[in-house]
Structure formats: structure tokens, C-alpha cells
Amino acid sequence: MDHRRLARTSRTIALIGVGGVTCLVVVPVAINAATGGSALRVLGPYATWLWPSLTLLVTLTAALAAWEPLSALLVQRRPAHPANRLAALDRVDRFVRSRVEGSLAEQVRLKLGVVPRVGPRLSARIRAPLVVAGEPGCGKTTLLLDLAGRLLERARADPSMPVPVVVDVGMWRPEQDFGEWLLTALRRRYRIGVRLGRTWLRERRLTMLFDGLDDLPAAHRADCLRWITALKLPQVVLCTSTDDYERLPRYDVVHVEPLRRTDVLDLITACEPRLDGLLEALTKDPDLWDEVRTPLAFDLLALAYRAGRAEYRGVLDTYLVESAARGPGKAERTIRALRFLARIARRRNDLRADHRLPHRRVWLDFVGEPAVWRLFRRAGPGAMAGLVTGTCLVIAFHNLPSAIVAALAAIGLRQGRFDTTTDDRRRGLRWAAAGFAAGATTGAALSTVGGWLGAQATNWPAFVTFGLVLIITFLITLSITRDRYWAVAAALAPTAVMIWTGPSPDLLKGLGTGLLAGTAAGALTAGLTRVWRTLDRPAPRPLHWLPLAGLPAIALAAALGAPITPHIAPITGLLIGLAVTPTVRPPEPVVELLAKPLALDEFPLRRKAIIQSARDRVLLVTGNRFPHALVRDHLADCDPVELATTVERRRDALTPTASAPRA
Q1: Are residues 67 and 202 in the same domain?
Q2: What pTM does this model have?
Q3: Residue 292 structural domain
Q4: Strand order in the sheet with 252-255
Q5: Angstrom distance (rounded) from CA 374 to CA 361
Q6: For a tag on the chain, would you pick the N or C end, based on fewer CB atoms within 10 A?
Q7: Residue 266 domain-assigned?
Q8: Over pLDDT 70: what percentage of the chain?
Q9: How far is residue 29's CA from residue 43's CA, in Å, rounded to a whole number?
Q10: Which pLDDT value is given to residue 662?
Q11: Cβ 353 vs Cβ 624: under 8 Å
Q12: pLDDT in tens, 30-45
């Protein structure tokens, strides 16, 4: 253990000890003494030191907690500090090792004990931009990671050598400044601060290893190469499967050649009898040799044929079918989920398959019309009806006339008609019921909380509550009409009521209930409208969505003996609160939450389980990444129904002993 790790461990132990004593012993004793109790008898004459000790321990705990981030910030502001270089080397080393250990080739090595030969070893002495060229799947990234490992060893041994960093250039967008994008990529992947990264680029302390130039659209590759040339970096390595590198002013190129037949036969022989199926397929179908040209193709077929007796359908289809057939659950659901993730990853020029959905603009156009219909024509109106029902039910148990007013006022709530149709309406009722239940629960909870908050406001001085009602009324009316005179006139109505009744608790309870219920209704309608516009659909038109949904709740409350007290104060407060509905502009997280149900058909709730199952079947590798861009793109373009049918047929053909892969 080096001195830096020892010091970090010591600080962590000290923080746990001091923080534990402070929070579990000193703070409870101090609270007890401050609230009229007495200090523990065991303290004896040291009781007078309670508060100075508390101050000292809190200060020491805060200092220990802030030591690490503050020291890192101070060190990063000193680019020449050796700690910056050592930390960067450690992070690059962790990244390279994780990529190597999570690669498809490593999975094959663990299962079969062999790995295909990849092209020539790259030289660590880079005098001009070095281009690693070869067809997709030939092992360019493997060579790049091997070079990064050797450059790391050299950089650790010689402090004057630059730090190697691997950057996926395929994630760059032409509308971004390449230098700023590169600094951001270094900060996100290796936590090399922007200021530090800019200094190291200027002082030529970085060796840039760019991977995935061919992931960029063809029209943008020339711009990317111009940016790389403009940076004037002394040591650059670039991986590509195209000939765009010829636009560079000068370069050295290493071509990665395809696998030879003898290489493939040697690999099959080395792991007999686990690849007997592959050897038999090669013998029966000589054309298969044309596909086993790259290490990627061999790895995929090796994983597919390791259980034997597989029917050949092409490299990618064979790999997908044989891997998915040995997994649990419905094949179509798994394939749909993987296709959805593959489409998102391809759009982002990435290989990650994350269970967290990105921004809705990335994936909304991947969802089907039935999901759009169920959300906007069933779940949305159902949620609004449930929201009104839950709100009216809570209000009715306090004041039945106020609930009737709320139910009638709900007729005018803003909503939109979303023109979408579908032939599959089997799940429409379930979506409507789920939306109604969620809306009713939300409405009841918010109405209860709003009434409680209004009741708490009755403890304030009368002039404060009086002014609060007037200001809220004025601001709501002003935001609706944009006319100060109408806003002042509207504020006169609650003024007259409060002069007559005073700022009564009923008015404040009604105001709190109306504000929260109106905010929820406004957020739902405005949020659904924003999601609809993200789908690039025509503007919504008015929709009649069960406008008297609250009346059954009122009838239920009346049957249970709800009080009938027709006072104007609670009705006034409720109407003021509900008036906030058309002015609500929901924040982006609320809109994202409303959009998520659209992904359920393609990416169901058991997302982590599906991803874990895909990892177990080597459809994904470590880090929840697709094994290669070719696999990702094939999944993104597949027909899930046809592929799932093939998987189910293959499952039926498997014997019980072959239902799981053999190592």
C-alpha cells in the first residue's frame, strides 16, 4: 500500500470514528441539555466542556469530510503537480483493464481457453499519426488497448513520457467544438479537469488513442480529421475501417489482415470437443469460410456453437439465436428490449445498454402506435378522471358543497385531444384503470396535504394570511389574463369574503387544497401536451374526458355522512387554488416521467433482470455493453417477431442437457 492510499485510509477511519462519536454521543447529549434536560452523570465535572467539545468535533468532522474533495480541487489547479499525473495514469489503467476484461474476446478465452490471433503488435514509438485500418471486427480496438497498456507502463517508468488516453471519437458531433468536446470527454471518463486537460494538450503531455472513426457519419469524418490535424498533437493513433485517413497530411498505417484458414482450424483443434459443431458446419458449408474472416466472427460463432448441434443462419443470427435460446423468459420480450437498447445506443454512437432511459427525444420515435394510443387516449384521461375523483372525495368529507363546486369546476380543466388510433385495444382498459388509480391516489394525497398546510397557516398573524390570499389571487389572475386591472378586480372578491368572514381556517384549507390539486392537474395536462409535441404530432384539440368524474365520489361521501355546511369561505379558497391549473408549466423531470410509460412495450419494467439475463447469455459484455457495433446494428435492424420465433423453435429443439451453455 503506497503512502497516498495509507493516508486516505487513515482519514476514512478517523472520519468514521469522530463522526460516530459526534452523531451518536455528543449531539444527543447536547440536544438533551438544550431542551431542559441534564447532562449525563458520568460526565461529572466535564459537563461544562460539552458545547466546546461539540463545536470542536463538528469542525473536525467537517474538515475530514471536506479534505479529499478540497485537496483534489487544489491539486487540479496546479497542472504540474505529480499527483495529477499519477491519478490520471491510475484511471486510464482502470479503464483499459475494464475494457479488456469485459471484451467479447475475454469471454471466449474464459469459456474456451483460446483467443483468435489479432494483427501485428503496434509500435509504442509514434512519430506520425498512426492509423490502424481493417474491416469491422478484425481486432483494431484490441490492438489499441494493448498499445495503451504498454504506453501506460512506459509512462509510469518515465515521468517525462505523455499520458495515453483512449477516446471514442465516434461520439463527437459536428456542431460541437472538437477541442471542447475532447476536454469534456477526458473529464467524464478519466476525471481530468478541463483546465488540467487544456494545459496537458498545450504542453503535449497526452498521447491520444482515438477509436471508432467509422462510427461517425461519412459526411463528418473529414471535419473530424481536420480537427485532429489542427490540434497538432505529436502522438496520435486512429482506428478506422474506412480509407478516410488518406485525408491526413501525413500518417503511418498498419493494416490488420483477416484470419487465415489455418488459424481457424488451429483454434478449433485447441478447444475440442467443444467446437465440434463449428468444425462440422465448416466442413459441410465451405462458403462459411468467407464469414469467419475476423476474430469477431470467430468469437460469435464459438459462443453459439459451444453447446453443439447448432443450425447455421449467418454469423450474427446464429450468435443471437443460440444465446437467446438458452435464456429464461419470453424470447420476444428480451429481443424487443435489446433492439430498443441497440437503437438508442446506435443513435448515441455508443455501445452501452443502460436500464435508465435517456432524454425522451432519443427514443420516443422508436415506440409503437399502440403505446401512444394507450397513453394519450386511455391512461391520460383516466389519470385526470382519477385526480378529480380523489380530490373531490377528500374535499367532500370536509365540506360537501365545496366538493360539488370542485366537480363542476373540473369541467373547464384544460385537456387535449390526441389524434391517434390503433388496432390493438386489448390493454386499453388496463391502462385506463392504472391511470385512474394513480390519479385518484395522487389527488387524494395532494388534497389532504394541501388542507393540512392551509390549516397550519391559520396560526400565522391575521394580516399575514390576509395578504397571502390577496397576493396569490392577484398573481394567478395576472398570469392568466396578463391584465393588471383584471388581476386587481379578481383580488377584490376574496377581499370581500375575508372582510365578511375574516381569514378563516376554512378559506385557507380550501386555498391549500385547490393550489396543490390545481398544480397536479395543470402538470398532467401540460406535461402530456409537451410529450405529444415531442412526438412531432399535430397540435391537440379539446377533448371531453369524463367531465363529471368527481360526482360518484361526492355521492359516496354523502352516503357516508359528509357534513353539509354551505359556507362561502372554503369555496372561495378552493376556486382561487384551482385557478392555478392553466398557468402550470411542469418541469422537465415531470414531463420525462409522463413519457416513460410509452417505452413499456419495448422496454418493460423488469429492465435490470432482462439486462442481467442478456449478460449471462453473453448478448452483452461487462459494463452492459454490446460486444461490437456490428452486433448492436444487427439487433437494431432485426425483426423481433421473426427472430423470437426462430429462438422459440430452437428452444424446442434443445435437449434438457443442452439447455444451458457448457464452459
Answers
A1: no
A2: 0.78
A3: 261-357+605-658
A4: 163-168, 206-211, 236-240, 130-133, 252-255
A5: 19
A6: N
A7: yes
A8: 81
A9: 10
A10: 40
A11: yes
A12: 776 666 666 566 555 6
